[in-house]
Queue: 3 jobs
Job 1
Amino acid sequence: MLLIEKKHPAWQAGRYNLPGGKIEEDETIHEAASRELQEEVESDWPARTDLYPRDDRRSSDFVVYVCRCDYDSLAGRNVLESMTDERVFWMPLAEAMNHEKLIDNLRIIIPPLPSRN
């Protein structure tokens, strides 16, 4: 899972969150996810054509879309560099979901992943 060690807002400082943000007017979910990823993380990825919406969580006040993109860390791809003053890094999903620094609502927002055979 791609995580950001947040410095701001204050309530997230020192905690781990996902890259993300708001969808701009006339922007698709895919476009917003690609833009937010580019704004927060510089990587060696090509255009994010393999980034796609996976699920959503809704309340009366908001909708959170969870997107997924695959990567191959063993092939030496996906070198990361933060585009902000916050650290970006990869962590295995199972480890991240149990990490004490993970923002609590991510355990609800991130849908369970199917097992891979």
Job 2
Amino acid sequence: MRDFRSYPELEIDFDGGPQLVVGRNAAGKTNLVEALTVLSLGRSHRTSTDAEMVGWGAPFARLEAGLGLPAAGSLEVVLVAPDSTTSASARKRVKVNGVPRRPSALMEALRTVLFAPEDMLLIAGSPGLRRSALDQLVVQRVAQAASSLSTYTRALAQRNTLLRRIREEQASRDELPYWDGVLVQEGGQIVEWRLETLAALAEPLVSAHREIADDEGALRLRYLTNAPARDGETPADALRRRLGETAEKELWNGATLIGPHRDDVSFELDGRELSTFASRGQQRTAILAFKLAQVDLLSVIDGRPPLLLLDDVFSELDPVRRSHLVRRIDGLPQSFITTTTPDDLDPALVAAATAWRVEPGHLRLAS
């Protein structure tokens, strides 16, 4: 890492097995996890603004990783800070094995599953959190999904602007069909991928939840869409039909009311929605099962388990849930666990891990 967040420069080799990163709050633990996330997803899980990750006053930030894998031995991401004299935004350059690639190529080389404190709001929080969690899993299974999501987001913004201009009599309805077509094509495909991913996740999710809480019932995820398909309809057909049905209402509101950007995912235990009755412990169990199921699902793509990133979450879990997580960690080639104090961790994990001490801008082996 060079000039990434709080790290002016860091070059370090990690062994296999659990990597335990210990440090006080704001020392840079999450910055390290964020760097690994950017090298995997091509973007941060904490900000949508790439410029925020460039160290203060630096012209760019550079991340490089050697994976020790034949197919993808090296990854590189360079974030170029915007020029303060222009309105240009930050630029991003990505290389895989030294060859310039799109950011989505990183996901094929390095898959990750991140479990962070904010994930504890996944069930009770806003639908946007659940959509984001599902889409992150989708793009790691389907390489072209990242491009479709990006195209859909841009088209949605353009369509919303056009709807507002039509409402204000500054544009014609004749301009709508083009953007409707983009939304139907990309949005329908996104819904298909989401449904396929949830179907593939169903069995691993039930198994993971049963492993942690075998007396609580079957856990499933149900997709809640504002454009449900009728018999014989594809998701694109349903989206096209619903856009027609809500056309006047959208013109009145000046916003797109139908599409995958408004869909949701429900966590259900034996058919009951968890957000309406579950205790915090039951919600944490379901979220942990969701993360462990992702590990299983991504592992079957090419037989290579993803890199598990646990950012200060052990303190949120009781001893029983911690022990289940530790057993899963033991079976992975490598994982990263951050904490402010090892007292929150299972002693067996501490004994098996390589311990690191993080201080502002530095990372060293713990004595």
Job 3
Amino acid sequence: MNRRLYLIVLAAALAAVGSVRAEDPLDALKQQLQLLQQQVQQLQQKVAELEAAKTTPPPAAETAATTTARWTPSQPITLAKAGPAYMNISLDSLLDFGWSSKVNVRQQQIGDHDPAQRGFTLPNTEFVFEGAVDPYFKGVGDVVLKLDEHSETTIELEEAYIQTMSLPWNLQLRAGQWFTEFGRHNPMHPHQWDFVDQPLIVGRMFGPEGLRNPGARLSWLVPTPFYTELFLTVLNGNGGTAFSFRNPEDTLGRAPFERGLRGPQDLVYAPRLASSFDIGDTQTLLLGASAAFGPNDTGADTRTQIYGVDAYWKWRPVNAQRGFPFVSWQTEAMLRRFEAGEDMAAGLPAETLQDYGFYTQLLYGFRVGWVAGLRGEFVTGNAGANDIADPLARGDRARFSPNLTWYPSEFSKLRLQYNFDHGQAFGNAHAVWLQLEFLLGAHAAHKF
């Protein structure tokens, strides 16, 4: 017992003695001694607690508050923060390695982020900047770098948009550039794909880059007992990111007609309706219908219409661990009506060209981190005057692709895929691709 404790005990004893009543000194002294013993025991316990506190580390909450926590991959990389505004950054990169029986790999792999050559391809390194602008808006920027088959670096602004956070009546407004909500696949970034390459029908309808262009979109979350959302996107319809519309680089063999943007009639309008239903506790079904209407560059008044339907079904047991096991099925079908203008110099008449096709895929997550997939697809078109001259653009095409994906964590994946291709333009082709992905920082959430 230290000096401080002796002084406390002595003071307590003097106080006890001073309070002894003269009329019954013995009984009073016994009571005061018992009280004094209790006080001494309490003081000894307090001293022991204080001594123990000197050697015991502070709680985890206090440590986190007073020291800088070590960053983990599950946390966003925050570059700047000022009040409610902040900006996070993440990086996602894909590397492909493989071999094709055809030297010209681009004949089979028509997507801009598909494997581009035998050997190694770096098709997509994506920097995403996202955050809250203020209490009313959030912003997203997506910059992509990629190496082509000549090892030349290409930089593109894939997405950059601002989006409202608190409009009334379940409305949301977005403005800028992003992957237009058409079907299931077009809105997805390459790292979200379930296969190494984009489906053939998506390439036939929207080209290597997918459908995305500067514009605005209004969406409405319909107040129904199940999820239902309506979208209406209005965007510029020019260039390679509007492949089937005002795109002078691909006019199906005809000389381009430079019509420009003369008014609202020359914009592209893309409505979509999507609904989701729960089937018991283990199954979910999502159905969607999409369309896109706009002009094309083969005549003064020629137009293109694209229609699509899609379905997604997923089964997962109630006792699933980290999302496994699961079974999912996804399919899309699309139809394009392309009003081709007359080209007298090339001897091509005015005609309506129709292309259509589908893909369907099945995924089986058979254990944590392991997914087996199988995809089948087919595209074709009606006979046109220029079909013989350009079978690669509109000829029949089928592909069959099994794959196996391993996710060591949510921040990396390794995928092995085999493709059997049959095309009217090149016959049979075989290819094997190995894909590696890694992610730094917490990527923004994507839709189910």
